[in-house]
Write a structure and sequence with these properties.
- By secondary structure, this protein is α/β, with parallel strands linked by helices.
- It has one domain: Oxidized Rhodanese, domain 1, CATH 3.40.250.10.
- The protein is built from four helices and seven strands, in the order βαβαββαβαββ.
């Protein structure tokens, strides 16, 4: 069995700063269509970007998207991203995005990063997300899907 590829986890604040600072960086949201629609999306319009949306797994059956790497590569081409572009992968809490970053690293992309705590972060004591950590909790721009 091969060792897992080490992926750097970056805070949501640092992700936002890097997205603003470097025009070649890309945010890839790997959540499901349902999450994009009902939970919201990172809003990158103020920095003249849009997140790339490719599901890591489907909803509600949670089947792995076996064409994930191909779909991401197809989405990156038209926006000028290359295998050397810095790619930030985000999901709800940082678990699926880590797997997605590993998959894209294995596909030849050299600068894949995991967004720590994701869009909504961990559950709080009331079992709600979006309050303790993550994109929304930090007050970064987002829109309802």
């Amino acid at each position: 069995m091969s060792a897992e590829v080490p992926i750097e986890s970056i805070s949501v604040d640092e992700t936002w700063e890097r997205l603003k600072r470097d025009a070649s960086t890309v945010l890839i949201d790997v959540r499901t269509i349902a999450e994009w629609a009902y939970v919201g999306l990172p809003d990158l319009t103020s920095i003249n970007k849009r997140p790339v949306l490719v599901e890591w797994q489907s909803f509600p059956d949670e089947r792995l998207n076996t064409a994930f790497a191909d779909r991401v590569a197809e989405a990156l081409g038209p926006i000028g991203a290359t295998q050397d572009s810095e790619l930030f992968f985000i999901c709800r809490s940082g678990v699926r995005s880590l797997k997605a970053a590993r998959a894209m690293t294995a596909a030849g992309y050299s600068r894949c990063r995991n967004v720590a705590d994701g869009f909504e972060g961990p559950l709080d004591t009331d079992r709600h997300r979006g309050r303790l950590a993550g994109w929304k909790a930090k007050g970064l721009p987002w829109v309802q899907g």
